[in-house]
Amino acid sequence: MANTPENPVDDRRAVRVEIDRVSKSYNNQRVLDDVSFTIEPGEIFVIMGPSGAGKSTLMRAIVNLEKVDEGEIRINGLDAFKQQTHKLMHTAIVFQAGGLFNSLTVEENLGFYPREHRLYDRKTINEKVAYTLRILNLEGCADKMPSQLSGGMRKRVAIARSLIIEPRLLLFDEPTSELDPVSAANITEVIGTLREEYDMTSIVVSHDRELAASIGERVALMGSGKVVMLDTPQKLAESEDPEVTAFLKPSINCNNPRFRQNLAC
Ligand code: ADP
Question: Ligand 1: which residue has its CA nearest to atom 22?
Protein backbone atom coordinates (compact mmCIF):
# COMPACT_ATOMS: atom_id res chain seq x y z
CA MET A 1 0.00 0.00 0.00
CA ALA A 2 1.22 3.52 -0.75
CA ASN A 3 3.22 5.27 1.90
CA THR A 4 1.78 8.77 1.86
CA PRO A 5 1.04 11.23 4.64
CA GLU A 6 -2.69 10.73 3.99
CA ASN A 7 -2.37 6.99 4.13
CA PRO A 8 0.35 6.23 6.62
CA VAL A 9 1.63 2.72 5.84
CA ASP A 10 -1.17 0.15 5.53
CA ASP A 11 -2.84 -1.02 8.72
CA ARG A 12 0.29 -1.68 10.79
CA ARG A 13 1.02 0.36 13.86
CA ALA A 14 4.76 -0.04 13.32
CA VAL A 15 6.15 2.86 11.30
CA ARG A 16 8.58 3.37 8.43
CA VAL A 17 11.38 5.86 9.08
CA GLU A 18 13.05 7.47 6.07
CA ILE A 19 16.29 9.35 6.59
CA ASP A 20 16.88 11.37 3.48
CA ARG A 21 20.22 13.12 2.78
CA VAL A 22 20.66 14.38 6.33
CA SER A 23 23.69 16.52 7.15
CA LYS A 24 24.66 18.36 10.30
CA SER A 25 27.76 20.23 11.42
CA TYR A 26 28.92 21.50 14.79
CA ASN A 27 31.49 24.30 14.51
CA ASN A 28 32.57 23.29 10.99
CA GLN A 29 32.82 19.61 11.99
CA ARG A 30 30.46 17.55 9.83
CA VAL A 31 28.97 15.03 12.26
CA LEU A 32 26.29 13.77 9.84
CA ASP A 33 27.37 13.74 6.23
CA ASP A 34 24.60 13.11 3.70
CA VAL A 35 23.09 10.17 5.58
CA SER A 36 20.25 8.29 3.86
CA PHE A 37 18.53 5.03 4.72
CA THR A 38 15.09 3.65 5.43
CA ILE A 39 13.99 1.63 8.44
CA GLU A 40 11.09 -0.67 7.62
CA PRO A 41 7.94 -1.10 9.75
CA GLY A 42 8.48 -3.60 12.55
CA GLU A 43 12.22 -3.82 12.12
CA ILE A 44 14.71 -3.96 14.96
CA PHE A 45 17.29 -1.68 13.43
CA VAL A 46 20.65 -1.06 15.08
CA ILE A 47 22.68 2.08 14.51
CA MET A 48 26.18 1.24 15.64
CA GLY A 49 29.68 2.60 15.38
CA PRO A 50 32.51 3.98 17.44
CA SER A 51 32.22 6.91 19.80
CA GLY A 52 31.87 10.19 17.92
CA ALA A 53 30.48 8.55 14.76
CA GLY A 54 27.29 10.63 14.90
CA LYS A 55 24.87 7.97 16.21
CA SER A 56 23.38 10.04 19.01
CA THR A 57 23.09 13.12 16.83
CA LEU A 58 21.14 11.09 14.28
CA MET A 59 18.93 9.60 16.99
CA ARG A 60 18.19 13.03 18.41
CA ALA A 61 17.36 14.27 14.90
CA ILE A 62 14.91 11.40 14.35
CA VAL A 63 12.99 12.36 17.50
CA ASN A 64 13.17 16.09 16.79
CA LEU A 65 15.52 16.91 19.66
CA GLU A 66 18.13 18.19 17.23
CA LYS A 67 17.91 20.43 14.18
CA VAL A 68 19.76 19.33 11.06
CA ASP A 69 21.34 21.58 8.42
CA GLU A 70 20.11 19.66 5.40
CA GLY A 71 17.84 16.79 4.55
CA GLU A 72 14.58 15.35 5.76
CA ILE A 73 13.42 12.61 8.08
CA ARG A 74 9.95 11.20 7.50
CA ILE A 75 7.93 8.86 9.65
CA ASN A 76 5.22 7.18 7.61
CA GLY A 77 5.66 10.04 5.20
CA LEU A 78 5.19 12.72 7.87
CA ASP A 79 7.80 15.31 8.83
CA ALA A 80 9.81 14.07 11.84
CA PHE A 81 10.81 17.66 12.59
CA LYS A 82 7.25 18.40 13.72
CA GLN A 83 6.24 17.42 17.24
CA GLN A 84 2.75 16.50 16.05
CA THR A 85 4.23 13.61 14.04
CA HIS A 86 5.74 12.07 17.18
CA LYS A 87 2.48 12.53 19.06
CA LEU A 88 0.69 10.68 16.30
CA MET A 89 3.28 7.90 16.14
CA HIS A 90 3.58 7.60 19.94
CA THR A 91 7.36 7.93 19.63
CA ALA A 92 9.12 6.88 22.83
CA ILE A 93 12.77 6.87 23.87
CA VAL A 94 14.58 4.78 26.45
CA PHE A 95 17.36 7.12 27.50
CA GLN A 96 20.71 5.82 28.60
CA ALA A 97 20.32 7.17 32.12
CA GLY A 98 16.78 5.78 32.36
CA GLY A 99 15.35 8.99 33.78
CA LEU A 100 13.27 7.29 36.46
CA PHE A 101 11.80 9.31 39.32
CA ASN A 102 13.70 8.17 42.40
CA SER A 103 10.93 9.21 44.78
CA LEU A 104 8.28 7.08 43.03
CA THR A 105 7.84 3.32 43.13
CA VAL A 106 8.26 1.27 39.97
CA GLU A 107 4.49 1.13 39.54
CA GLU A 108 4.11 4.87 40.08
CA ASN A 109 6.92 5.54 37.59
CA LEU A 110 5.03 3.60 34.94
CA GLY A 111 1.75 5.37 35.58
CA PHE A 112 3.21 8.86 35.92
CA TYR A 113 3.20 10.03 32.29
CA PRO A 114 -0.24 8.76 31.24
CA ARG A 115 -1.72 10.16 34.47
CA GLU A 116 -0.09 13.60 34.06
CA HIS A 117 -1.14 13.79 30.43
CA ARG A 118 -4.56 12.26 31.09
CA LEU A 119 -4.02 9.78 28.29
CA TYR A 120 -6.43 7.23 29.69
CA ASP A 121 -8.85 6.92 32.60
CA ARG A 122 -7.62 5.65 35.96
CA LYS A 123 -8.80 2.07 35.46
CA THR A 124 -7.18 1.81 32.01
CA ILE A 125 -3.90 3.19 33.34
CA ASN A 126 -3.88 0.62 36.15
CA GLU A 127 -4.57 -2.15 33.64
CA LYS A 128 -1.83 -0.98 31.30
CA VAL A 129 0.66 -0.67 34.14
CA ALA A 130 -0.18 -4.21 35.35
CA TYR A 131 0.08 -5.60 31.81
CA THR A 132 3.43 -3.93 31.14
CA LEU A 133 4.86 -5.05 34.48
CA ARG A 134 3.85 -8.60 33.57
CA ILE A 135 5.37 -8.45 30.08
CA LEU A 136 8.69 -7.25 31.46
CA ASN A 137 8.65 -9.65 34.41
CA LEU A 138 8.59 -6.79 36.87
CA GLU A 139 5.53 -7.74 38.91
CA GLY A 140 7.70 -8.64 41.89
CA CYS A 141 9.16 -5.17 42.18
CA ALA A 142 6.10 -2.99 41.51
CA ASP A 143 6.32 -1.47 45.00
CA LYS A 144 10.07 -1.04 45.07
CA MET A 145 11.89 2.24 44.66
CA PRO A 146 14.38 2.54 41.77
CA SER A 147 17.26 2.79 44.27
CA GLN A 148 16.44 -0.72 45.51
CA LEU A 149 16.96 -2.22 42.04
CA SER A 150 20.02 -3.37 40.13
CA GLY A 151 21.15 -1.48 37.02
CA GLY A 152 19.62 -4.14 34.76
CA MET A 153 16.28 -4.02 36.56
CA ARG A 154 16.21 -0.22 36.42
CA LYS A 155 16.77 -0.48 32.67
CA ARG A 156 13.83 -2.87 32.41
CA VAL A 157 11.67 -0.38 34.33
CA ALA A 158 12.77 2.38 31.95
CA ILE A 159 11.77 0.20 28.99
CA ALA A 160 8.45 -0.64 30.64
CA ARG A 161 7.76 3.03 31.23
CA SER A 162 8.30 3.83 27.55
CA LEU A 163 5.93 1.04 26.53
CA ILE A 164 3.00 2.48 28.49
CA ILE A 165 2.14 4.85 25.65
CA GLU A 166 2.15 1.89 23.21
CA PRO A 167 4.80 3.36 20.93
CA ARG A 168 4.73 2.82 17.22
CA LEU A 169 8.38 3.87 17.19
CA LEU A 170 10.68 3.09 20.11
CA LEU A 171 14.29 4.25 20.29
CA PHE A 172 16.90 2.92 22.67
CA ASP A 173 19.97 5.00 23.49
CA GLU A 174 22.87 2.66 24.36
CA PRO A 175 20.62 0.28 26.32
CA THR A 176 23.40 -2.05 27.47
CA SER A 177 26.09 0.45 28.39
CA GLU A 178 27.08 0.46 32.05
CA LEU A 179 25.58 -3.01 32.56
CA ASP A 180 27.47 -6.16 33.49
CA PRO A 181 27.56 -8.80 30.72
CA VAL A 182 24.71 -10.89 32.19
CA SER A 183 22.39 -7.89 32.58
CA ALA A 184 23.39 -6.65 29.12
CA ALA A 185 22.45 -10.02 27.62
CA ASN A 186 19.16 -9.94 29.50
CA ILE A 187 18.26 -6.44 28.27
CA THR A 188 19.24 -7.45 24.74
CA GLU A 189 16.87 -10.40 24.96
CA VAL A 190 14.08 -8.20 26.33
CA ILE A 191 14.43 -5.78 23.40
CA GLY A 192 14.43 -8.70 20.98
CA THR A 193 11.24 -10.22 22.35
CA LEU A 194 9.19 -7.05 22.76
CA ARG A 195 8.02 -7.30 19.19
CA GLU A 196 5.97 -10.37 20.07
CA GLU A 197 3.73 -8.09 22.16
CA TYR A 198 4.05 -4.71 20.48
CA ASP A 199 3.61 -3.86 16.80
CA MET A 200 6.31 -1.22 16.66
CA THR A 201 9.57 -0.28 14.97
CA SER A 202 12.65 -0.35 17.21
CA ILE A 203 15.79 1.68 16.63
CA VAL A 204 18.67 0.78 18.89
CA VAL A 205 21.68 3.08 19.07
CA SER A 206 24.54 1.07 20.46
CA HIS A 207 28.19 0.22 20.14
CA ASP A 208 27.49 -3.26 21.56
CA ARG A 209 28.47 -5.79 18.89
CA GLU A 210 26.82 -8.68 20.74
CA LEU A 211 23.52 -6.82 20.80
CA ALA A 212 23.70 -6.00 17.11
CA ALA A 213 24.58 -9.56 16.19
CA SER A 214 21.86 -11.17 18.26
CA ILE A 215 18.79 -8.96 17.73
CA GLY A 216 19.56 -6.49 14.94
CA GLU A 217 17.74 -7.41 11.75
CA ARG A 218 19.75 -4.80 9.93
CA VAL A 219 22.62 -2.72 11.17
CA ALA A 220 23.86 0.63 9.96
CA LEU A 221 27.52 0.92 10.85
CA MET A 222 28.43 4.57 11.10
CA GLY A 223 31.84 6.19 11.03
CA SER A 224 32.72 9.90 10.87
CA GLY A 225 29.13 10.91 10.13
CA LYS A 226 28.64 8.51 7.23
CA VAL A 227 27.06 5.10 6.87
CA VAL A 228 30.04 2.80 6.32
CA MET A 229 27.89 -0.29 5.70
CA LEU A 230 24.20 -1.15 6.07
CA ASP A 231 23.24 -4.80 6.02
CA THR A 232 22.37 -7.81 8.16
CA PRO A 233 24.67 -8.56 11.10
CA GLN A 234 25.85 -11.66 9.25
CA LYS A 235 26.84 -9.70 6.15
CA LEU A 236 28.66 -7.19 8.32
CA ALA A 237 30.54 -9.98 10.08
CA GLU A 238 31.57 -11.42 6.70
CA SER A 239 32.73 -8.08 5.34
CA GLU A 240 36.38 -7.56 4.64
CA ASP A 241 36.06 -3.81 4.30
CA PRO A 242 38.83 -2.45 6.56
CA GLU A 243 36.51 0.19 8.06
CA VAL A 244 34.03 -2.52 9.02
CA THR A 245 36.58 -4.97 10.39
CA ALA A 246 38.32 -2.19 12.31
CA PHE A 247 35.13 -1.77 14.32
CA LEU A 248 33.84 -5.34 14.44
CA LYS A 249 37.12 -7.17 14.88
CA PRO A 250 39.50 -4.74 16.50
CA SER A 251 42.97 -6.23 16.67
CA ILE A 252 45.89 -5.38 18.83
CA ASN A 253 49.13 -4.79 17.06
CA CYS A 254 51.19 -7.69 18.37
CA ASN A 255 54.29 -6.32 16.73
CA ASN A 256 54.32 -3.42 19.13
CA PRO A 257 57.40 -4.15 21.33
CA ARG A 258 55.65 -2.91 24.47
CA PHE A 259 52.77 -5.30 23.86
CA ARG A 260 55.18 -8.18 23.29
CA GLN A 261 57.06 -7.39 26.43
CA ASN A 262 53.95 -7.20 28.61
CA LEU A 263 51.91 -10.06 27.26
CA ALA A 264 54.41 -12.33 25.54
CA CYS A 265 52.22 -12.36 22.44
P1 ADP B 1 28.19 9.10 18.92
O2 ADP B 1 26.82 9.03 19.47
O3 ADP B 1 28.39 8.21 17.74
O4 ADP B 1 29.24 8.88 19.97
P5 ADP B 1 27.67 11.92 18.64
O6 ADP B 1 26.51 12.04 17.72
O7 ADP B 1 27.39 12.04 20.11
O8 ADP B 1 28.44 10.56 18.34
O9 ADP B 1 28.76 13.00 18.29
C10 ADP B 1 29.33 13.14 17.00
C11 ADP B 1 30.30 14.29 17.02
O12 ADP B 1 29.60 15.50 17.24
C13 ADP B 1 31.34 14.19 18.13
O14 ADP B 1 32.57 14.63 17.63
C15 ADP B 1 30.82 15.14 19.18
O16 ADP B 1 31.86 15.69 19.93
C17 ADP B 1 30.12 16.19 18.34
N18 ADP B 1 28.99 16.80 19.06
C19 ADP B 1 27.88 16.13 19.49
N20 ADP B 1 27.02 16.98 20.08
C21 ADP B 1 27.60 18.21 20.04
C22 ADP B 1 27.22 19.51 20.48
N23 ADP B 1 26.04 19.73 21.09
N24 ADP B 1 28.07 20.53 20.25
C25 ADP B 1 29.25 20.34 19.62
N26 ADP B 1 29.67 19.14 19.18
C27 ADP B 1 28.87 18.09 19.39
Answer: 26
CA of 50 to the centre of ligand 1 (A): 12
Amino acid at 177: S
Task: Give, using CA atoms, the residue closest to atom 26 of ligand 1.
Answer: 26
260 Cα to the center of ligand 1, angstroms: 35
Which CATH code of 3.10.180.10, 3.40.50.300, 3.40.50.970, 4.10.1110.10 fits the domain covering 13-90+167-172+206-265?
Answer: 3.40.50.300
Question: How far is the C-alpha of 93 from the C-alpha of 166, rounded, in Å?
Answer: 12
Of ligand 1's atoms, which has the minimum distance to the CA of residue 49?
3
Per-residue pLDDT 10s for the chain (265 aa) are: 444 554 554 578 999 999 999 999 999 999 999 999 999 999 999 999 999 999 999 999 999 999 999 999 999 999 999 999 999 999 999 988 778 999 999 999 999 999 998 888 999 999 999 999 998 889 899 999 999 998 889 999 999 999 999 999 999 999 999 899 999 999 999 999 998 889 999 999 998 999 999 999 999 999 999 999 999 999 999 999 999 999 888 765 555 554 444 444 3
Q: Which of 26, 55, 227 to mutate for ligand 1's pocket (most ligand atoms within 8 Å of CB)?
A: 26
Gap between the Cα atoms of 197 and 135, Å rounded? 8
For residue 139, the tally of other CB atoms under 10 A from its CB is 12
- Which amino acid residue places its CA nearest to atom 18 of ligand 1? 26
What Rg value do the Cα atoms of the chain yield, rounded?
20
